[in-house]
Amino acid sequence: MLREKGLEVLAYEHKTHIKGVKTVKGSLRGVINHNDYDVLFHLAKFSHSNTIGRFLKSLWGYFLNGDIARVLKGRKLVYFSGSLVYGGGAADERSPIKPVGFARFYFLQEKPFLNYKNALILRPGWVLGDGSWFKRFYLNVMLRKGFVPIYGNGENIMSLITLKDCALISIKLALNCKIGIYNLFSEHWKQKHFAELISDITGFPIKRVGFWEVLNLETWEALTHSLKLETIRETNHGFIPIREYVREILKRYGF
Fold this sequence. Notes:
Largest sheet: 4 strands, parallel
Order of helices and strands: EEHEHEEHEEHEEHEEHEHEH
Distance between the termini: 28 Å
Oligomer: single chain
Strand content: 15-25%
Radius of gyration: 19 Å
Number of helices: 8
Helix content: 25-40%
């Protein structure tokens, strides 16, 4: 999308291959050593498979992001965080930080940028795309086990936004030189209603999944937390309906 606007894009490629743009192989440390850019889109997160590992990785990320903030020297930073930093209930950009799930660790990595004068910090809700949480916790379960899962009681509110909308808004805000914190979402769905939509499209039955089938506290908290994300910002964007986007994704898998 950046290239479509006539901009030169350089991507730092670590484990995942990035097609269609010029890339530099290496880790996030390369951002510090390579200064040939005007705007840095920072989507990287340090993670691990267990709680202790996540803490240690996030501590490393905290110090590394501090180094990045220092070498930016006033250049634009677009940092992608997440809405789990707000905990549950309802939250806009002024709400207190009460991290749950993975955000207990990820917020530590965000902290070095909170006082950076030229930072645009984006906190999207559930980013809906053909990958990430949707593929792991819905598509894969459906394709392997033949049912649509509901995690917990299904009453939790999910603040959803499509991947395409998330990308378009982030680029628009960056190019318009916006700074500060922006919450990104388009629609609020109860998890059980989201599962019912998938079930109606695919014909798969719905089945409730309990904690003992997930066996990871941070994952369980992320899947079952209830947050009605709000915003005090104006983005002037026409959002893709969630219902249509889910149908489009599932169509690629033959549904």
